[in-house]
Design goal:
Blueprint (H helix, E strand, L loop, with lengths): L3 E6 L8 E7 L2 E7 L12 H4 L15 E4 L2 E4 L2 H19 L4 E4 L6 H15 L4 E2 L7 H11 L16 E5 L3 H4 L1 H12 L3 E5 L12 E3 L6 H14 L5 H7 E2 L1 H8 L8 H4 L3 H13 L3 E5 L1 H4 L4 H14 L10 E3 L6 H6 L6 E2 L3 E2 L3 H11 L11 H10 L4 E5 L3 H4 L3 H10 L2 E6 L11 E4 L8 E4 L4 E5 L11 H11 L8 H11 L8 H4 L4 E2 L23 E2 L18 E6 L15 H6 L4 E4 L1 H7 L6 E5 L4 E8 L7 E5 L12 E4 L6 E2 L3 E7 L1
Parallel strand pairs: 6-7, 6-16, 8-9, 8-12, 9-10, 11-22, 12-13, 16-17, 17-18, 23-27, 24-26
Antiparallel strand pairs: 1-2, 2-3, 4-5, 4-18, 14-15, 19-20, 20-21, 23-30, 24-27, 25-26, 25-30, 28-29
Helix pairs in contact: 2-19, 3-19, 3-20, 4-13, 7-11, 7-13, 16-18
The structure holds iron/sulfur cluster.
C-alpha cells in the first residue's frame, strides 16, 4: 500500500517536470506525473518515469570513506568531518584561502548552492567557487548578458505551442529536453514552421520546414549570412532596431560581407537554404530561437550566443510575448546554481563580488570580511591545480573526470592536489580519486527548490530520510561549524536568507512556491513573477548589437585526423550515466557507447554495421561500435558521452572559449580505424 505521495521536481534535465514519488514502508516505489505541474502538465519522458530507481540502488554510498594507503576505509561522520575540516584549515593556513576551491553542484538544490557559495566565501575566504555551467551554459550567461543584460531564457515554455516559427539550432529537444520537445511537436501540429540547423539530422529535423546541416563550428558564419540576407532584402525590423537597440551600423559593418553564397564552403550549406531559413524566421510574426550545448560548447560559444541575439534583435523577435531565445539548460538545477552565485564573480542574483556596496551587504549579513577579487573558473582551477597554486578541491555532485574535456588532463589536475574531498551519491570516477568521500543525498531525500530553464523556481520535497543520514546542506554546515562558523542549514530559512540578500528573488519563499512556483525576476514580496523579460525595455536598457565573426574550431581536420568529431546526448541516458545506467529498463535500450559515421565514409574505410572501431584524437583513443547512419554528413563523427566504461571525453579537446572558459566538446579533429 502507498503510504505517502510526495510532489517534487525531476532531478534530470533542465526542463523541470513535476511528479509525485510514491512511498511505501519508507521506500520509494514509483513515479506518478503531476497533471497540474505548469511545466510538464501530466507528461514525463522515460528518464522521469524511472527517476526513483537509482535512489535506493545498492551502489549508493552510505558511509563516509577516508583513503588510507590508497584504499578507502569506512569512517564515522564525526571522524570524516573532523578530518576534512582539519585538512581545509591546514591548507588555508599554509597557502592562503585561494589555494582552496569549491565545485558546487547543478544536481543540488538552490539552497544548497547558496550554502556552498557562502561556505566558499565566508568560511574558506575565497571566491574560487564554480560549477558545471562552466562546461555547458556559461556562454549563455556571458553572451546574453552583454546583448540584453540578463543571461537567461527570455520567454516561457507555454508560448512555444503558439509560435509561427521556431528556429532550433544546436539543440535536440525531443531527445535532450523531451517535454519541451513535446511543446515543439504541439507547435508543429498547430501549424508552426520549424527551422532546424544541426550537423546531425536529429528527429525534429524530419518535421522541419527548412533543415540546414552545417558543419560543426560554423554557426556564426551561418547566422551572419542569415542577418546579411534579411537586411539586404529589407526584412529587418527597422522600428525595433531604432527604438530598442544600439550598434546596428557596427553589426552591419561586420556582416555585410557574409552573403549566403560566401559561406557555402565553410558551412557546407547551399545559399538557397540559408535564404529560405532567413526569410521564414524574419517574416514570421511569432518566432523564437531555441538552442543548447550545440551552440555553447565551442571556443566561440559566447560569440555564437551573441550572433543569435543579433539575429533576434534584427528581426524584432525578442522583448515581447511569443518571441525570444530559449537556452535549453542541461542539468536539473544548472540555472539555479548560476542564480545562487555558485560562480567565481558574483553572489546570488548575479551581484558582482567586485562591487564594494554589494560586498558590504553580504559581509554585514554574514558578519565576516569577504574576498574582493574574482575567483577562478572551473577551467582555470584545473590549470592552477596542475601548475601548483591550487592545493585543495571540494567537489559536490560532479563527476569531472567523466564530464570535462580531455579526461587525462583532468586526472592529472586531480592527482596534483594535496587534498580532494568529494561529496557524491555513487562512487564516480572522480570520487575514486578523492582523499575523503562524503556520501550525499539524492533529490528525494531533501527539501528545497530547483530553477528550470524558464527561470521557474519549483519546490523539491523530501520523500524519505537521507540514506547516508545527512543532506548535502547539513554536511556543508557541519564542516563550517568545525571551522568556527555557524550556518543555518534549514532549507526554508536558507531560501529566506537568499531572498533577503537578492533583489532579483526578493519575492521567493517556500510558501509562495507551493502551487506553480515562480519565474524570476520576482523583485517584491507579492510580485507575481515574470514569464517574459525585456518587455518594452531590455534589462541593460538598449539591446546591444555586438559584431562577431566566424572563427574555426581550435582544432581543424588535417591529413592525419580527417574527421570532425562532435558529441551530445541521447533520450535514454543522462550525462555520465551515473543514474540512468543503474536503471535496467533504460540500460537495455542503449547499454554501450557507439560512434555514428556516414555510410559513404564507412564504405570507404570498410567499416561494417556494429563493427568495433578505434576512434582516435590527439588526446586519446577509444574502441566503440560503429553506427552507420546518413543522419550525419560525410567527414563528421558523432558520439554520446553517457558511458563511464567507454568515456568519450578521453577524446574531446580541452580548448576553451576565452570569455566564458567553456570547453570545445562539439568539434575536434579525429580519425576512425578498423581494428
Ligand atoms: Fe525529467 Fe527532463 Fe524528462 Fe522532464 S524532460 S521528465 S525534467 S528528464
Amino acid at each position: 500500500m502507498i503510504t505517502k505521495r510526495v510532489l517534487t521536481t525531476c532531478p534530470y534535465c533542465g526542463v523541470g517536470c513535476g511528479f509525485y514519488l510514491d512511498v511505501r514502508d519508507a521506500r520509494i516505489v514509483g513515479v506518478i506525473p503531476s497533471k497540474s505541474n505548469p511545466v510538464s502538465k501530466g507528461y514525463l519522458c522515460v528518464k522521469g518515469w524511472h527517476a526513483h530507481e537509482p535512489i535506493q540502488h545498492p551502489d549508493r554510498l552510505k558511509k563516509p570513506l577516508i583513503k588510507e594507503n590508497g584504499k578507502f576505509k569506512e569512517a564515522s561522520w564525526d571522524a570524516a568531518l573532523d578530518y576534512v575540516a582539519a585538512r581545509l584549515k591546514q591548507i588555508k593556513n599554509k597557502y592562503g584561502p585561494d589555494a582552496l576551491a569549491v565545485c558546487a553542484s547543478a544536481r543540488c538544490t538552490n539552497e544548497e548552492n547558496f550554502l556552498m557559495m557562502k561556505f566558499s566565501r565566508a568560511v574558506l575566504g575565497t571566491n574560487n567557487v564554480d560549477h558545471c555551467a562552466r562546461t555547458c551554459h556559461a556562454a549563455t550567461v556571458a553572451g546574453l548578458n552583454q546583448s540584453f543584460g540578463s543571461g537567461a531564457s527570455t520567454n516561457s515554455y507555454d508560448e512555444l505551442p503558439f509560435m509561427d516559427c521556431i528556429l532550433i539550432i544546436g539543440s535536440n529537444p525531443t531527445e535532450a529536453h523531451p517535454i519541451v520537445g513535446w511543446r515543439v511537436r504541439t507547435a508543429i501540429d498547430n501549424g508552426a514552421k520549424i527551422i532546424v540547423c544541426d550537423p546531425r539530422k536529429i528527429l525534429v529535423a524530419e518535421s522541419a520546414y527548412v533543415y540546414i546541416q552545417q558543419y560543426p563550428g560554423t554557426d556564426i558564419a551561418l547566422l551572419n549570412a542569415m542577418i546579411n540576407f534579411i537586411v539586404t532584402q529589407e526584412l529587418h525590423d527597422k522600428e525595433f532596431i531604432a527604438k530598442r537597440t544600439e550598434g546596428f551600423s557596427e553589426l552591419w559593418d561586420a556582416v555585410k560581407d557574409y552573403t549566403p553564397e560566401s559561406v557555402e564552403d565553410v558551412t557546407g550549406v547551399k545559399a538557397e537554404l540559408i535564404k529560405q531559413a532567413a526569410k521564414l524566421y524574419a517574416t514570421s510574426k511569432r518566432a523564437c530561437i531555441m538552442y543548447s550545448l550545440g551552440m555553447t560548447e565551442h571556443t566561440v560559444g559566447t560569440d555564437n550566443i551573441i550572433a543569435m541575439a543579433n539575429l533576434a534583435m534584427v528581426c524584432g523577435h525578442v522583448g515581447r510575448e511569443f518571441s525570444g531565445l530559449y537556452p535549453m539548460r542541461g542539468q536539473n538545477n544548472v540555472q539555479g546554481a548560476c542564480d545562487m552565485g555558485a560562480l567565481p564573480n558574483v553572489y546570488s542574483g548575479y551581484q558582482p563580488v567586485t562591487d564594494e556596496a554589494i560586498r558590504k551587504k553580504f559581509a554585514d549579513a554574514w558578519r565576516v570580511n569577504l574576498p574582493a577579487v574574482k575567483g577562478l573558473t572551473l577551467t582555470d582551477m584545473i590549470y592552477k591545480a596542475i601548475e601548483g597554486p591550487l592545493k585543495c578541491f571540494y567537489i559536490i555532485g560532479e563527476d569531472q573526470v567523466r564530464t570535462d574535456p580531455n579526461t587525462h588532463w583532468i586526472e592529472q589536475a586531480l592527482d596534483s592536489l594535496e587534498f580532494l574531498v568529494i561529496q557524491e551519491i555513487f562512487l564516480s570516477e572522480t570520487a575514486k580519486k578523492a582523499d575523503v568521500i562524503l556520501p550525499g543525498a539524492s533529490f528525494a531525500e531533501k527539501d528545497g527548490t530547483f530553477t528550470c530553464a524558464e527561470r521557474r523556481f519549483q519546490r523539491v520535497r523530501k520523500a524519505i530520510e537521507p540514506i547516508s543520514g545527512k543532506t548535502d546542506g547539513e554536511i556543508i554546515c557541519e564542516i563550517a561549524q568545525r571551522l568556527g562558523y555557524t550556518m543555518e542549514s534549514d532549507p526554508e530559512k536558507v531560501c529566506d536568507e537568499m531572498a533577503s540578500l537578492t533583489p532579483l528573488y526578493t519575492g521567493v519563499s517556500f510558501e509562495r512556491l507551493e502551487d506553480n512556483g515562480l519565474q524570476w525576476p520576482v523583485p517584491e514580496k507579492n510580485h507575481p513573477g515574470t514569464p517574459v523579460v525585456h518587455l518594452g525595455k531590455f534589462i541593460r536598457g538598449l539591446g546591444k548589437f555586438i559584431p562577431v565573426r566566424h572563427k574555426p574550431p581550435a582544432e581543424v581536420t588535417d591529413k592525419e585526423y580527417p574527421f570532425i568529431l562532435s558529441t551530445g546526448r541521447m533520450l535514454f541516458h543522462y550525462n555520465t550515466g551515473t543514474m540512468t545506467t543503474r536503471v535496467a529498463n533504460i540500460l537495455r535500450e542503449y547499454p554501450r557507447n557507439f560512434v555514428q559515421i556516414n555510410p559513404a565514409d564507412a564504405q570507404r574505410l570498410g567499416i561494417k554495421k556494429q563493427e568495433r572501431v578505434m576512434v582516435r584524437t590527439r588526446r586519446g583513443e577509444l574502441k566503440v561500435a560503429a553506427q552507420i547512419t546518413d543522419k550525419i554528413k560525410p567527414g563528421v563523427l558523432w558520439m554520446p558521452f553517457h558511458f563511464s566504461d567507454e568515456p568519450t571525453n578521453v577524446l574531446t579537446n580541452n580548448a576553451f572559449d576565452p570569455v566564458c572558459r567553456t570547453g570545445e566538446y562539439k568539434a575536434c579533429a579525429a580519425k576512425i580505424e578498423k581494428i
